[in-house]
Specification:
Radius of gyration: 21 Å
Strand content: 15-25%
Shape: elongated
Number of helices: 5
Oligomer: single chain
Largest sheet: 3 strands, mixed
Number of strands: 5
Distance between the termini: 59 Å
Number of domains: 2
């Protein structure tokens, strides 16, 4: 299927995604507009979350997209530019500040955990000889 965006019911949706949404609407016996309202914002939200992670790696702490709620978390107070970007989405997004670790700290913690496991398994394996 060609990569074509279709303007439908006020949304710009990829043609392949639109076909999927039409199938979902048919299977769940919902109007297409209901399925569009429920699902069309997901890719926009994912793109926004990826952009925020790239632009604010020291502040961004994660994102979640549930069928009825979107949330973006920051390790401290959200940067004003990030708030402005979030406000541009046509759907409500919950913003959580002072939650989680920024990317650099997550990687440091992850490395420390992996290194500890490596040391433990190496010592355990040495004791098995």
């Amino acid at each position: 299927m060609p990569a074509v965006d279709v303007d439908i019911c006020g949304y710009e949706v990829d043609l392949a995604a639109l076909v999927d949404m039409m199938l979902i609407a048919d299977e769940e016996a919902h109007p297409l507009s209901y399925v569009l309202d429920r699902l069309a914002h997901q890719q926009m939200f994912v793109d926004l979350a990826n952009n925020l992670e790239d632009m604010f790696p020291d502040h961004y702490a994660g994102a979640s997209a549930e069928p009825d709620a979107y949330r973006i978390c920051f390790s401290g107070p959200p940067p004003p530019q990030a708030l402005a970007m979030i406000d541009e989405l046509p759907v409500e997004v919950g913003i959580v500040g002072s939650r989680g670790l920024p990317e650099e700290e997550r990687l440091t913690v992850r490395y420390g955990v992996v290194e500890s496991i490596h040391i433990l398994t190496t010592n355990w394996a040495a004791g098995c000889d």
